[in-house]
Amino acid sequence: MMYTAGKDPNDWINAEGLMTMDRTWVFKLQLAYNFPWDILASVNYQRMSGRPYALIVRVYPD
Q1: pTM above 0.85, yes or no
Q2: Domain of 58?
C-alpha cells in the first residue's frame, strides 16, 4: 500500500479538523542582553503541544 495523502494540494480542500502533524499551540520565548565589552547573550525556548514523533521498532529475523 502506498501513502499518497497530501501529495496533491487539492487533497486538503474542505478538510475539517487538525491535520496529522498540526500542533494546537506553540509558545516561543527569545531573550537577548548585550553585556559590556560587546558580549551578547541570548536564550531561546520553544514549547509545542502534540509534538509529532514516530516510534520506530526494527525487528530482524534470525
Answers
A1: no
A2: 22-62
